[in-house]
Structure formats: C-alpha cells, structure tokens
TrEMBL record, chain A:
Name of the protein in question: Ion-translocating oxidoreductase complex subunit D
The species this protein was found in: Tangfeifania diversioriginum
Transmembrane segments: 22-39, 45-62, 74-90, 121-138, 194-212, 219-237, 243-264, 276-294, 300-318
Keywords linked to the UniProt accession: Cell membrane, Electron transport, Flavoprotein, FMN, Membrane, Phosphoprotein, Translocase, Transmembrane, Transmembrane helix, Transport
GO biological process terms held by the UniProt record: electron transport chain; transmembrane transport
UniProtKB/TrEMBL annotation, chain B:
Protein name: Ion-translocating oxidoreductase complex subunit C
Gene that produces this protein: rnfC
Database matches in Gene3D superfamilies: 3.30.70.20, NADH-ubiquinone oxidoreductase 51kDa subunit
Oligomeric and partner information: The complex is composed of six subunits: RnfA, RnfB, RnfC, RnfD, RnfE and RnfG.
Entry GO MF terms: 4 iron, 4 sulfur cluster binding; electron transfer activity; metal ion binding
Keywords tagged on the record: 4Fe-4S, Cell membrane, Electron transport, Iron, Iron-sulfur, Membrane, Metal-binding, Repeat, Translocase, Transport
Membrane topology: Peripheral membrane protein
Chief place of localization: membrane
Length: 326, 443
C-alpha cells in the first residue's frame, strides 16, 4: 500500500469549533454597541476603538516577539477583543496617548506578564481601565456630550455620578431624578458614559447572540444582574429617599457591559456553573457596595477584578456535580 | 419528552450512511487470524496445533479462567500456525491462523433460519450454553457475558437493559440487526432474563432509528416483560452508565458495577448471539460489521467471520478510497486507528471506518482558554482540563482525588475542545498511572 495510515488515539473527529471562532463571535456580539456609540459620540468613538485595538495588538506582538521570544499569537482574536473592550471602558474623548498607555497596561501587565492567553488571572481590559482611572482621574471622567441628546454642553456628568454626588450632599432622590434621563433613554443609550457602556439594549442584544451561539452561558450575567437588582432593591424599599430604585442601577454605568462582556471572560471566570453563580453574586454584591458606600460612583470594574482573584479558589473548591454522587 | 442522561454529552454529526443497506453475508476469506484474546480477561488457551483440521464452529482455544471466553473456528480448514500477530491494538497477540478450505460446519449447529421461540432450559443451563459459545459484549467492551449473568454475592439484578442505542456516528450494525432479526433479539432477551431471574427488560433505542423503535415496540408485545424506550439522541448514551441513567434514572455509584443499582446491560448484538447460541447451538464466530466512511464506494453492513482481515471487508465495500488517511476499527469517537489492513475482525469489531486524509489529521493544539466546555460536556461530571494538567504534571494524587478513574474515555472533551487539546490522551495516561498506584496500594 502506497499511502501511510495515520494512527492516533480516539476520538478521531472534532467538533470543528475553535478558539478563534469563539473570539470572533464575541467581536461580532460587540458590534451593535459599537454602532450605537458611533451614533452617539460620532467619529471619536471609532477613533478611540481603532487606537485601542491597534495598540493592544501591537503591544502583544512586540512583547511576544522581542521579550518573550515566542511566536506572536495576535491572530487568535483575543487582543482584538481586549482592544475593543478597553475602548468600551473609557470616555470617547480620551487622548490617543492615554489609550496607548492603557493598552500597555492591559496587555503587558494584565495579560502577557502572566504568560499570555489562558494564563492571566485578571481581565486584561479591566486592568487597563483601572490603571488609567487611577493614573488619569480627570481625563477618565470627562464625558463627552451625547450628540443625540441635543445639549450644547461640551461635557456632562453620567447618571451614576449625578446620583452619587447628589446623595452624598444630602439631596433627596426624588429631586435628583429631575436631572436624570428617563429609564427608557438609559435602556436605549440616550445618556453619557464610557464609550461602549451607554446602551443597555445593544449590549443585551450582543449578549443574547452570545448565549444563542453558546459562547457564554446564562449563569454569570444573570447572577451579576440578579444580585445587583436584589441588593439595590432591598435598600430602595427600606429608604426610597436615600437610595435609587434598582432599575436605575441596572441601566446605568458599566453594569450591562460588565455583566455580559467583562465578567464572562472565559479565562478569568470559574469553570463550573455553581462556581460561576458564586462569582457572579460576588461581583454583584461588591459592585453595589461600592456604588452605595464607596468613594467611586461606579464599582463593577473593581468588583470583577476582585472576583477574578477568587476564581482559582472557586475552581479549587467548587467541583461539578459528579456522576454517581459523592 | 424523550428520556436521556442528564450530565454532559455531545452531538457529533451522525453520518449513518449505511443505515439503509441490508446485512450482506460475506463468504469466508482465504485465510483467517483468530486472536485468543478478544475479550476483557485472561486470554484463552489454544487447543489446536499446526496441521490440525478444524470445522466451522469448532472450539480452538479454551477459556482459561472464569473471566475469559472460549474461541471457536470461524471457518473450516487447516491450522497453519499458532503465532503472534498484531490485532487492532497494534500489539502482537497470540492467535490461530487457519487456511480456509470449504465451509464445513460442526454438526450440532442448526443452520436453518427458522425462529425457535420456545425454550425450557433453566437459568443455569442457559448461562452454561452462553459460556460454552464464547459470547462477549458485542457493543465493543467485550466483557464475557456469562460473568455478567452471575451477580456477585448479595446483589440481585432487577432489570435487564438491552442496548440498541448505537450512539457512535457511522455505525449501523446494531440498527440493521434490530430491523432484520427483531424476533431473535427478543427471544435472546427472554433467555437473558431467565438466566438473570428478572421479570423486566427494557430495550433502549435512540430516536434517530424510528423504524427500529416501531418494529421492536410492535414485536415486543408478544414477549412478556420486554418494553422499548425511545431515547433522545445524545452521545455517549450507549455508555453503560449513561444508558442506565437514561432509562431508569439511577446513577451507578463511582467505581461500582451496574449491578449495584440492580441493572445488567447487554447489547442487541449480544442478545442475538445468545439466541443463536442457546437455540441453535451456534458459537460466536461471526458478527455484523459496518464498513463506512465519506468516500467509501459502497457503505455496507456485513456479516463477517471472526478473523477476516480488514482488507477483505474494505474490498467488499468497493475498495480502499484513494484519499484514505486513517482506518478505524470501531466508531470515530471511541474506535482504534489500525496500523495495518491485515488486522482481523474480532468479537468487538462493530465497524470499520475509512477517513480521508483531511479528517485523519488532528488540529494543531493551542493554549487552553478555560472556556469550560470540556467540563460541561463530560458525562461523568469530571473536569477534563484539570485532569489533563495534573496528569501532564504527574500530580497523580490530585488526579485520583478528582476521580480520574471515573473517566469512561468517551472522548467528548477532546471532541469539543475549541483549542483542539488532546485532553483524553493525557487523561488516559493519568488513568494508567493512577490505576497502577491503586493496585500497588492493595498489595
């Protein structure tokens, strides 16, 4: 016989799914939110996203090639996602050099210092965002105006910041609400905030697509959103003049972006459904604690990073349901 | 809602291309190689020597212990030699080479096709005949059937499950057998029920074989205590523990045998072999083998003699396609890739699958992204990604703690891994080592 046979252990077929396909499905799921932010913030949204993506890919390439001396893996799609998510987590008017610093922090510190894809403990895009938030607090909280909202202002405050400032100064919630966009506007994204976080609706559409394509499961988003709603709801019911209702908590800030796209990052979240629920509830609880009692108006980035650190511990103790019981 | 097992599972493309093709009887080849170890347990001891003349169905190797089986000549002719040659594992195994001359069967075998439905043997006599005939589990595990029929002390069988699931892609041998030999399978099932002293038997069939479900449901009405359960299609439902869970809802505890939950599982092919052995005095020396593959000219189901070289079956199915890159004995999920086309059909060969070059090569593995799909598809509730790492790093105590020995090697993890990591390869290595450690501890 002329041709040689391949001999390898079973299984002999493969599902034909690949890491790359998963990554590109995530990118695809991010597109509705990106389109919305271009609609709201204009070309600036594209500029920031493009700079972040190019910078993340370039940093990964340079570090892998010249520092780690391994074959660069920039076409696996993961640097592309980190770039988009980093952009989604910063204001649309951010200067280019700050974005590049964010990319260096995200890829260099957040990802490659741990060994690259699959080995990082913390979500790289959030490492970048938090690095920038601490280093450039002014630029990171200068929000461009929503071009659709019809205001002439160069910058405006996010709903979360309005609430935080108002409540700390003792203004009753009912009065604060007159300065706030309506819930439907926040659902759609007729508000301001970080580039990709403003439209809950677009993020939910992307999330449903990922659920449908089995990129993510329901456990993390539902447990994050559910725990925020329940905890915020308890405070609101106890004292509606000092705490805003849970609907606003769900629709404002980075909650949807965090719950659907950041907390679900496969590399940094637990492996079992039960572990994912513990992780999600942890994120929800920390987020709402920071929002209600912390110094920052928004807390989901910190919450996800803190729970990222617990992921190895959760994986160690929360085992899947074994066949045949204990 | 159709029944199925709960944890994990995957849906590989079914590709049952030979399902519509009736079983064809393949004439005896020119020569056969019959290994003496075609079952789990001790190899049989050859009782013929070079130059002996044997008849089809004659005992040629004798069971050497309780967990072992008799081996019979599948052809008539002259014993060429008793020697070692590679079987589907690739390792040399002792076996008997026979040069075929005619096809003269031993006199006791009733060769008529006539259905013999009645029997008055008692359970013990049935088990003896099964043992005598060298019957093993024909689903692929090849565990000696007579051993299963004698539950360990203190345990009692309550239900017999007949496995007609055939969840491996491509394979259709059980499907064809159910369509063509339904009465005989049902009679064989009654025989097994009597041997086990159970009143109830359930035949589990996946829903992608509606014709078999319908036929057996209809025919089983005249057989007391036998019913058919249609199951939702999901791999690896043909796994013993998964089938028990799907049909009865009970989970066999870790490390225990099905009898622990009162169940005994036999394949439909085994039930048919039992019928032939008990009612027709025919030892197990032939079986149905599917030959299939994307480029196979004539996908077929052959009734082939044990010991027939793979090559002969491939020729009968239209020859080896030009582009063949891998030949598998069994199905694509759990079968073994063979290194030579001389490898013989044995009692456990349910199919021969020819894969084209493109399919034959594995993808280049890349790094684990911890997507957790291997965890969600594992039918045993294990963490393949973790077992891979601890096996690779040789941290065997962690592997054992995390129940590596529960792995049934179904391959769902490797199949599904988007990074194409060979998870099962590492887990098999870890299982081997942990098994050694456990055995040395018992000493």
């Amino acid at each position: 016989m002329s041709n040689l046979l391949t001999v390898s252990p079973s299984p002999h077929i493969h599902s034909d799914d690949s890491t790359r396909k998963i990554m590109y499905r995530v990118v695809f799921a991010l597109i509705p939110a990106l389109i919305w932010s271009v609609f709201v913030f204009g070309a600036d949204a594209l500029r920031v996203t493009a700079i972040a993506v190019i910078a993340c890919i370039a940093v990964e390439y340079l570090i892998q090639k010249y520092l780690m001396k391994v074959k660069p893996s920039i076409n696996d799609g993961s640097a592309l996602i980190t770039g988009i998510l980093l952009a989604f987590n910063v204001p649309a008017g951010l200067p280019w050099w700050i974005i590049v610093i964010g990319a260096v922090a995200a890829m260099g510190i957040g990802k490659l210092s741990f060994g690259g894809l699959g080995n990082n403990i913390f979500n790289p895009a959030l490492v970048g965002r938090v690095f920038l938030l601490i280093s450039f607090p002014v630029q990171m909280t200068t929000w461009p105006a929503n071009q659709q909202a019809g205001t002439d202002a160069v910058s405006s405050a996010t709903p979360l910041a309005v609430i935080k400032e108002g409540i700390t100064s003792g203004t009753p919630v009912s009065q604060l609400f007159s300065e706030m966009p309506a819930a439907t506007d926040m659902l759609l994204g007729n508000t301001t905030g970080s580039l990709g976080e403003i439209s809950a609706l677009m993020l939910i559409i992307g999330g449903l697509y990922m659920l449908f394509k089995k990129v993510i499961t329901w456990h993390i988003p539902v447990s994050v959103i559910g725990s925020v709603a329940i905890i915020a709801g308890i405070f609101w019911l106890a004292d509606p003049q000092s705490y805003v209702n849970p609907v606003y908590h769900l629709l404002t800030g980075g909650l949807m972006l965090g719950a659907i796209f950041m907390a679900t990052d496969m590399v940094t979240s637990p492996m079992t459904p039960r572990g994912q629920i513990i992780y999600g509830v942890g994120i929800g609880a920390i987020t709402i604690s920071i929002r209600l009692f912390g110094a920052y108006p928004e807390g989901i980035s910190f919450a996800i990073l803190i729970m990222n650190a617990f992921t190895p511990l959760i994986n160690n103790y929360v085992k899947p349901k074994r066949f045949g019981g204990k | 809602m159709l029944k199925t097992f709960k944890l994990g599972g995957v849906h590989p493309p079914e590709n049952k291309i030979s399902a519509g093709n009736a079983i064809e009887v393949l004439p005896p080849p020119k020569s056969v190689f019959i290994p003496v170890a075609q079952h789990i347990g001790a190899p049989a001891t050859p009782v013929v020597k070079r130059g002996d003349l044997v008849k089809t169905g004659q005992l040629i190797a004798k069971s050497s212990s309780f967990v072992s089986t008799n081996i019979h000549a599948s052809v008539s002719g002259k014993v060429k030699r008793v020697d070692f040659a590679a079987d589907s594992s690739g390792y040399p195994k002792q076996g008997i080479f026979i040069d075929v001359d005619g096809d003269e069967w031993v006199e006791e075998i009733d060769r008529s096709e006539e259905l013999v439905k009645d029997f008055d043997l008692d359970g013990k006599a049935i088990i003896d005949k099964i043992q005598e005939a060298g019957i093993v589990g024909l689903g692929g595990a090849t565990f000696p059937t007579h051993v299963k029929l004698v539950p360990p002390k203190g345990m009692k069988a309550e239900v017999l499950l007949i496995n007609g699931v055939e969840c491996e892609p491509y394979l259709t041998s059980d499907h064809r057998l159910m369509l063509e030999k339904a009465d005989k399978i049902l009679t064989g099932t009654r025989l097994l029920m009597k041997a086990l002293k159970v009143e109830k038997a359930v035949i589990g069939i996946e829903n992608n074989k509606p014709d078999a479900i319908q036929l057996l449901t209809e025919k089983s009405k005249t057989f007391e205590g036998i019913s058919v359960t249609a199951l939702k299609v999901k791999y690896p439902q043909g796994g013993e523990k998964q089938l028990i869970k799907a049909v009865t809802g009970k989970e066999v505890p870790s490390g225990a045998l099905p009898i622990a939950v009162g169940a005994v599982v036999s394949n439909v092919g085994t039930a048919f072999a039992v019928y032939e052995a008990v009612q027709k005095n025919k030892p197990l020396f032939e079986r149905v083998v599917t030959v299939a593959g994307k480029n196979v000219a004539k996908p077929s189901n052959f009734k082939a003699r044990i010991g027939t070289p793979t090559e002969v079956l491939i020729e009968a199915a239209g020859g080896l396609p030009e582009d063949t890159g891998k030949v598998i004995s069994g199905g694509p999920m759990m079968g073994r890739a063979v290194s030579s086309l001389n490898v013989p059909v044995t009692k456990g060969t349910s199919g021969i699958l020819l894969m084209e070059n493109k399919e034959a090569k594995r993808n280049e593995p890349i790094t684990c992204i911890r997507c957790s799909r291997c965890v969600s598809v594992c039918p045993m509730g294990l963490e393949p990604y973790f077992l891979k790492v601890v096996s690779e790093k040789q941290v065997f105590d962690r592997a054992e703690e995390n129940r590596i020995m529960d792995c049934i090697e179904c391959g769902s993890c490797s199949y599904t891994c988007p990074s194409s990591l060979p998870l099962l390869d590492y887990i098999r290595f870890g299982k081997g080592k942990v098994g050694q450690i456990i055995r040395s501890r018992k000493k």
